Amino acid sequence: MLVIDCLKTVSSLPRLRVRVTAAAESMIRSGHPWLFADSVKDQNRAGELGELAVIFDRKDAFLAIGLFDPDSPIRVRILHAGKPRNIDADWWRAQLKQTLERRRGLFDDQTTGWRCINGESDGWPGLVLDHYDGSLVLKLYTASWLPRLDEIVALIDEQVPNERMVLRLSRNIQKLAQSQFKKSDGQILQGAPLDGPVVFLESGLRFEADILRGQKTGFFLDQRENRRHVETLASGRAVLNAFSFSGGFSLYAARGGARSVTDLDISAHALESAKRNFRLNQSVSAVARCAHNTIQADTFEWLAAPLKQKFDLVILDPPSLAKREAERAGAIAAYEKLAALGIAALNRGGILLAASCSAHVTAEEFFEAVRSAAGKTARPFSELRTTRHATDHPATFKEANYLKAIYLKF
Known about the structure:
This protein folds into 3 domains: about 15-80, Archaeosine Trna-guanine Transglycosylase, Chain: A, domain 4, CATH 2.30.130; about 90-200, RNA methyltransferase domain (HRMD) like (Transcription Regulator spoIIAA, 2-Layer Sandwich), CATH 3.30.750.80; about 220-410, Vaccinia Virus protein VP39 (Rossmann fold, 3-Layer(aba) Sandwich), CATH 3.40.50. A hairpin with a 2-residue loop joins β12 (about 200) and β13. It starts with 15 loop residues before the first strand and ends with a strand. The chain has helices at about 20-30, 90-100, 150-160, 175-180, 225-235, 250-255, 270-280, 285-290, 300-305, 330-345, 365-375, and strands at about 15-20, 35, 40-45, 50-55, 60-70, 75-80, 115-120, 125-130, 135-140, 165-170, 185-190, 200, 205-210, 240, 260-265, 290-295, 310-315, 345-355, 380-385, 405-410. Helices cover about 25% and strands about 30% of the residues. It is built from 11 helices and 20 strands. The longest helix has 17 residues, at about 330-345.
C-alpha cells in the first residue's frame, strides 16, 4: 500500500506549512509547478527531503501541496493546486491511471517505445518514465522522490506490465542518492538482469537503447514524429544527418527511399550505435539498399570546411546550445550560424530540417534565427512546416517547452 504523505522521518511532526510571496501565489494559481526558495516568506519548521509541504496564500487559505527539497533552488515541486485534497494511496493510484490513459491508443504494436510519464506536465514533477518494449526506465531529476522510491516503484509495477525497471538519475542528485539511499544511476530496481542495450520498435523499425548508461533514458523518443516526417521527404535524396547520435533520422530516411544517408557525429560510440541500428534493420529492403556512411567530426567545423559533396536533405538536431538563461543570446546566434552552414550544404531543391531542444530559447526565437539564416543566402525558399512536442511528451508550462523544429525547402 502506498501512503505517500506519511514518511517515517516526518510522521510525528506537524504538517509542513509554507507561505509564499504575492508573485509566487500568482504563478501557482496560473498553473506553474515550481515554488522557488526565494519565494518562500516563512514556514513553520525546517522541512525534510521529500515530505509534503502545504502552501498557503496571503489569506491563510490552501493554495497547493507538493514535494519539499530543503537544498534545491526549487524548494517545492507542486503535485496539486486548487481545492484541498488528501494525497493518499488512492490519489496516487488515480493520478497514475489518468497519466497512462492519456497515452491510450497513441501507439500500435509497431511502436513499443514511448513516454509514459512526462514530469511536471503530467503531474509528476521531476519524474520521467519511459517504456522500451519490456523495460521501464524511471528517471529522477529531483532528490525529493528518493525517500519514496520503493512506493513509487510498487505503484508503477502495479499498473504498467514490465520485465524490469531501471533507475536513471540526474547528475546533480547522484552523489546524494548513493550516500543516503544506496541508489545509483543505471541500477536495476527490479526484474531481469541486463548487460547491454535493449531493442524496441518504433514505427516498425528496430532500435537499440542503452537504458543503463545512455543519454537521457537511452534514446531520444521525443523526435519520433519528426523522424516519421523525414521518411516522407527522403525518397531519392542524399541525406546528411548532423549530430546523428544513433542514426534515428537516418534509418527513417533510408526506409523512405533515400539513395544515401551520412551520419555525422563527434562521438565514435554514437556512430557505432548507428551502424548497429542499420544492421538490425537489414530485413527492410529499402534500408538494405541505402548506402550508409558515417563521419566522426565536429559538425560546425566539418560543415565550415570545403565539402566534397552536397546533399538533398540536411538534418540539424544538435544537443542543447543553451543550458542556462545566460547562454540564450549566444545559442540563438549559434543556431543561425548552424542553419547557414546547413543551407550551404544543400543542393538546389534541397530541404533543411533544423531542430532545437534548448528550453531557454523560445520557439519563436529559434524559428526566426533559422529564417534569418535562410534570408541572408539570397536563395529562394519556402517554409514547409514547424513542429513542437509529440503527444506523449506534453509541455504545460514555459520551462517545459523545449522541442521545436522547422522545415525549409530551397
